[in-house]
Design a protein that fits this description.
Layout (H helix, E strand, L loop, with lengths): L7 H18 L3 H8 L15 H5 L4 H26 L1 H16 L12 H11 L1 H18 L2 H20 L1 H17 L1 H9 L13
C-alpha cells in the first residue's frame, strides 16, 4: 500500500513531533500541583476538570495561576522547539499532539482538561499578537459576566476570525481545528450556561 505522505525517512519527524507534543501536553499539572499542596484530588470538586479554573475552586489563586502558566507552556514549548528544529509544519503537528494530550491524557484514562490554557500557549508560540487579542477577549468577557466558560467560548469563537485577519489561511486552519475541539470539550458548560447553573468566578483577593 503506497504511503502518500512519503517514506519513513521523511515522515518520522512528524510522528515524533506529535508523540512528544502529546506526552508533554498530557502532564496533569493542575492535578499534581493541588495534590502536592495538600488540596486533594482536583477531579473530586467543581467540574472535575484538571484545568486552572477548577484549581481556582480550591481557593488558591496562586495554584490556579501556576496551573494556567504551566498548562500554557505545555502547548508553547513543543511548538517552539519543533518550529526551530524542523519548521512550521512540524510545529503544527506538535501543537495537535499537545492539545490532544491535555484533553485526553493517557495517565488519567483520557479524561483531561478543556484545553483553553494549552491552546493559548500554542497560539502564543505561533503568533503573540493573536494570542494577546484572544486573551483580551477572554478577560473582557470574564470581567463583565464572571463566567470562565463563557469567556473561553467567546475567545474560541473569535479565534479563527482574529487568526485569519492577522496571520492568514495557513495558521487559521490549525487554530480552527483546535477551537472546535475546545468547543466540544465545553458541551457540559454550555448546557449549564443555558440553564443558568454555571458557577461564576471571583476576582476578589484571596490569601491563598
Amino acid at each position: 500500500m503506497p504511503n502518500f505522505l512519503g517514506g519513513i525517512d521523511y515522515t518520522w519527524p512528524f510522528y515524533a513531533a506529535t508523540v512528544i507534543g502529546y506526552f508533554l501536553g498530557s502532564i496533569p499539572v493542575g492535578l499534581l500541583l493541588t495534590k502536592f499542596a495538600g488540596r486533594g484530588d482536583i477531579r473530586q470538586i467543581g467540574s472535575g476538570s484538571i484545568g486552572a479554573t477548577n484549581v481556582l475552586r480550591t481557593g488558591s489563586k496562586k495554584l490556579a495561576a501556576a496551573t494556567l502558566v504551566l498548562d500554557a507552556l505545555k502547548g508553547a514549548v513543543p511548538v517552539l522547539v519543533a518550529e526551530q528544529l524542523y519548521g512550521v509544519d512540524m510545529a503544527i503537528m506538535a501543537a495537535y499532539g499537545a492539545i490532544l494530550g491535555h484533553c485526553f491524557p493517557l495517565w488519567l484514562k483520557f479524561k483531561g482538561g478543556k484545553g483553553v490554557a494549552t491552546a493559548l500557549g500554542i497560539i502564543l508560540a505561533f503568533s503573540p499578537l493573536v494570542a494577546g487579542l484572544l486573551a483580551a477577549v477572554w478577560l473582557l468577557v470574564a470581567v463583565l459576566f464572571r463566567y470562565s466558560s463563557l469567556a473561553a467560548l467567546a475567545a474560541v469563537a473569535a479565534a479563527p476570525v482574529v487568526s485569519y485577519l492577522i496571520e492568514g489561511r495557513h495558521l487559521t486552519i490549525t487554530i480552527s481545528l483546535i477551537a472546535g475541539l475546545i468547543l466540544l470539550r465545553h458541551h457540559s458548560n454550555i448546557g449549564r450556561l443555558l440553564r443558568g447553573q454555571e458557577s461564576k468566578i471571583s476576582f476578589r483577593k484571596s490569601s491563598s
